[in-house]
Specification:
Keywords: Cytoplasm, Iron, Metal-binding, Nucleus, Oxidoreductase. Belongs to the iron/ascorbate-dependent oxidoreductase family. It is found in: Cytoplasm; Nucleus. This is Fe2OG dioxygenase domain-containing protein. The chain is an alpha+beta fold and 335 residues long. 30% of the residues lie in helices and 19% in strands. It has eleven helices and twelve strands. It has an eight-stranded mixed β-sheet with strand order 1-2-10-7-12-5-4-3. The chain has a four-stranded antiparallel β-sheet with strand order 6-11-8-9, with no helix packed on it. The radius of gyration is 20 Å and the shape is globular.
């Protein structure tokens, strides 16, 4: 582990946030994409006027007379886009705000503190890095991140960063296999306020369960068709920081890709995500206060026999605005 960190440091590991904070007037050459891969920022393609993207009210799922309407809307969104936004999803705004606050505090830590978590091993349960994989990327991307395994939470949370203090639940208590809410009631002085990201991870795990039930129904399957696989599956929380960039037209925060797993539940603090539509055009996903983004992954495409498509997406960066995002990546177990 120490040798890996040393090699990364020797390779002039410099995070995107460090570059922004240093006031570089242009992005270094290693971040510059070939002309054909650069985002067409400000062009007519990819504006929200071109395509109406689906926004689904999940509260309808809990109303017997309206559940079928929500299931139909999910069916249409999955067929046409492999993507939709959800409102009234049940995750309190305070939980969302606390998670974003914790992310802000983490990325504001001194570089030396964050470097304690750096690794080129993509299977490391907790990994801080920049770009996608600093040690192997031929072209780098304008992103800093921390990824951590999150399900079951009691198994992984003690490996999470202990700094900043608000980031995770206090050491030792999660081994009791209780939820954070239960621990907060039993140990209010010890657990609070060190549970912000853990609460968000739990909430997105429950939301993923509801979404898989609805997607199963939309395919004509039993509601609980994927229940066992969901509990046996994995959850990875990727917390991303896309700092302001002096030349957003020549680089990206993330390249075009689809997610391997079943669903990704995405929280973004401002606009930046783009999805590819059926005409191969890039469409900007508007920022909606309080909404979460649901992206279908490759596993759902396979499970649906291609009826539903995993969505190709990328992330653009902004000259004036730093964007934070939480990508809760859910995967069913491999058989």
């Amino acid at each position: 582990m120490e040798e890996t960190k040393k090699s990364l440091l020797d390779d002039s590991f410099t995070s995107a946030m460090t570059l922004t904070n240093s006031g570089v007037p242009q992005v270094p050459d290693r971040y510059v994409l070939p002309s054909a891969q650069r985002p067409a920022l400000g062009s007519s393609i990819g504006t929200r006027d071109d395509t109406t993207l689906p926004v689904i009210d999940l509260s309808l799922l809990h109303q017997p007379l309206l559940r079928s309407r929500a299931i139909h809307e999910i069916n249409m969104a999955c067929k046409e886009f492999g993507f939709f936004q959800v409102i009234n999803h049940g995750i309190p705004s305070s939980v969302v705000k606390d998670a974003l606050d914790a992310a802000t505090q983490f990325f504001d830590l001194p570089v030396e503190e964050k470097m304690l978590l750096v690794s080129s091993n993509v299977h490391q349960p907790v990994r801080y890095g920049t770009s996608i994989n600093h040690s192997t990327d031929k072209v780098h991307y304008w992103r800093d991140f921390i990824k951590h395994y999150s399900h079951p939470l009691s198994k992984w949370i003690e490996m999470w960063p202990s700094n900043p203090p608000c980031y995770k639940s206090i050491d030792g208590y999660m081994s009791k296999n209780a939820s954070i809410d239960e621990l907060s009631r039993k140990y209010p002085d010890e657990v609070l306020p060190r549970d912000k990201v853990g609460k968000y991870a739990e909430a997105t795990h429950l939301l993923n369960k509801q979404l898989l039930e609805a997607i199963s129904e939309s395919l004509g399957l039993e509601k609980n068709y994927l229940q066992e696989q969901n509990e046996e599956g994995s959850q990875v929380i990727a917390v991303n920081c896309y700092p302001s960039c002096p030349e957003p037209e020549v680089t990206l925060g993330m390249p075009p890709h689809s997610d391997f797993g079943s669903l990704t539940i995405l929280l973004q603090s401002s606009e930046g995500l783009q999805i590819m539509d059926s005409n191969k055009n890039w469409v900007c996903v508007p920022y909606i206060e309080g909404a979460l983004i649901v992206q279908l992954g490759d596993q759902v495409e396979v499970m649906s026999n291609g009826i539903y498509k995993s969505v190709i997406h990328r992330v653009t960066v902004n000259k004036h605005v730093k964007m934070l995002s939480f990508a809760s990546l859910h995967s069913l177990p491999r058989r």
